[in-house]
Amino acid sequence: MFAGKASVFNRKMQLAHPTYQLLDASDADEATEAVDAFAGRLLPIYPACKQLDSWRIAKAVDAVLPLAQDAVDPLPASLRAGRGFTPLPEALLKVHRPQTKADVEDARARLKWDEAFVLQVALARRRYADTQLPAAARRPVADGLLDAFDAKLPFTLTEGQEKVSKEIFGDLATEHPMHRLLQGEVGSGKTMVALRAMLTVVDAGGQAAMLAPTEVLAQQHHRSITEMMGELAEGGMLGGSDRGTKVVLLTGSMGMAARRQALLDLVTGEAGIVIGTHALIEDKVQFHDLGLVVVDEQHRFGVEQRDALRSKGKQPPHLLVMTATPIPRTVAMTVFGDLETSVLDQLPAGRSPIASHVVPAKDKPHFLARAWERVAEEVENGHQAYVVCPASATTRRRPRGKRARRRRRPPMRTPRSGRRSPCWRSPTSCARARWPG
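Above: the chain sequence. Below: its structure as tokens.
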């Protein structure tokens, strides 16, 4: 028996990729009953792949489904009763062999809750394990680098920045590693908050590392931080402040001499702050006393990459991750349940809010023309604009080696006859060749 979506092709009815089932029946009456039962039943469609069809998965489920009735329910009976959950064995039976659509909803509700519960338990256990790790307390120092930096600021911090900084300073003062997510839209002052945290760690004798996803962003952070700190970013250098520290940049494209000097500054402790890309995770990078790791655009990094950088400290360093992506509270609890969350919900005084617009170019082409006009207007006003384009899926790979050189070098032709010259393959023979005519 076949089942699937019927369609018309070349004036004929067809079933595209139908599912089928072999029915065991000794006579026509049994076959009719089997067909009626099959047609009126809710059938689960399992996600198939090229090597494994949905019906093969269904057969495997049929083989093990009776064993699922002996599954031990991890939830206490009181919790199930309070939330009205179906017992686990019954939920497994209903989701694979539902009698009604209500059975499907009940089973899915129970299994979804189990998935979320297991994730939250894992995050809670990880959060508890982190609180048991020892870490060096990094408390602010009076008349230190942070106070000198705050004294030269030409503006006042927002209430949100003050509040979040207080939360971070409280975490840094504990003897357990901080795990905090700093959330705020572009222009809300996250970099300023992170810099003040890094200066606090440097005051306490440690080092701070900021991890950026791209070299452009790392260079931008390095430039903005050194400009904000001024002479305080030139510690140990001629003309630098006595209370200052050295701020270095470490990326994969740096020259050998500059890279060697940056690595030396880190291992000797000469540099209190380092800003870099994935190059910070390399085995050759060693720190004198890594006390704080700041991860910008945290969604661009995996947990393994963050942990690889944190493992470079003598003790587990404090961790501050930043994101400009608005994250709902429920999503933050699900994905970042092992992190405390701080939100910057204010923009500094005098800063315009960020405006985001969606241009339906396909439906309204004139909107796209207006977008380019806005780009031209900003450029005329002395501003900059950048366009992000996806890579073309049809881009052909460029040939390499001798094959590439042959393609780039077209055959030489004589100016009169249009025939190939004797030297179209051997450049050394051109000096001896004579042009015809």
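The longest strand covers residues 179-184.
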